[in-house]
Amino acid sequence: MAKTIEQKNTPCNTVLKVIGDYWTISIIQAIGKNKRRFCELERLLPDSNPVTLTSRLKKMEAMDLLTRTKSPNDKISVMYTLTAQGKALLPIVTRIEKFAEGYHAGK
Length: 107
Description:
Blueprint: H1 11-19, H2 24-31, E1 36-37, H3 38-44, H4 50-62, E2 66-70, E3 78-82, H5 84-105
């Protein structure tokens, strides 16, 4: 008889909840090690829409993957940067991207 796997709060399931939302991996890639303004993210992710992008950024901020900082010089300008937690995902995202490239090449 096959053993069942408890699906509740495994570390893997927790990470998938973090990066599994559509656009999250793309946002992590777009910000990378740089600071990005919202308008830059919109240009880097042209298929996204502002409402979804805003929602995803708020969720990622709540999950401590990025920080949102208002510019002291320009009250309207907001900068997004990855936290240490977010930066720790960069090599994982790179590995996922390499897997995806190989997967598509084999089809």
